[in-house]
Design brief:
By secondary structure, this protein is α+β, with helices and mostly antiparallel strands. The protein has four helices and eight strands; from the N terminus they run E-E-H-H-E-E-E-E-E-E-H-H.
């Protein structure tokens, strides 16, 4: 299981989830895993089309592939280093996600920043997104290492609850005005 490494900052109504990962793959390979629908389905979700700047991409997330429908509205696409999209669905204030990829040693440093805003429930949603991204990034790492990303993604259900205390602690510190 991957150690929880994310942070929560911002404000209670506009929290920011931030995660970093050192991945054992070149930047171009990590980029492809994010943007190639045939690879993304193995760890992130089923894309109905390839991402393109200025376009909404319907995505079906979850271990079953159709569990959580959303639209990723692509704001920026700067291959192979930066992807920014808004997350639009009917259940959550999805916010804006920025993924930055930088060469680092023999691999890639991935930084994911997920900015939420505007809802009284944004802090609770940030907790769920934080622990969700943790699981998805573990599946991405497995895919890039040649492992079974689908198995990691399926096992995420078992580890979902174990990540909650960490993210709740981050949220409590943010609500108290202290950086955790």
């Amino acid at each position: 299981m991957t150690t929880t490494t994310g942070t929560l900052s911002g404000t209670t109504r506009a929290p920011v989830v931030r995660l970093t990962r050192q991945l054992d793959a070149p930047v171009e390979d990590v980029w492809s895993a994010w943007t190639d629908p045939e690879r993304a389905v193995r760890w992130l979700g089923r894309f109905e089309s390839a991402p393109a700047a200025g376009r909404g991409v319907p995505v079906h997330m979850g271990t079953g592939g159709d569990d959580f429908p959303a639209t990723f509205s692509i704001r920026e696409l700067e291959p192979p280093h930066r992807l920014q999209f808004s997350w639009d669905d009917t259940h959550d204030p999805g916010g804006v996600i920025t993924v930055t990829l930088e060469p680092s040693g023999d691999g890639t440093r991935l930084t994911l920043v997920h900015e939420l805003a505007g809802a009284d429930t944004a802090l609770d949603v940030a907790v769920d997104f934080g622990r969700g991204w943790e699981g998805l990034l573990s599946a991405l790492a497995a895919l890039l290492a040649g492992g079974d990303a689908a198995a990691v993604k399926a096992a995420d259900t078992a580890t979902w609850d174990s990540r909650e205390p960490y993210w709740r602690e981050q949220a409590a510190a943010l609500a108290d005005g202290v950086s955790a």
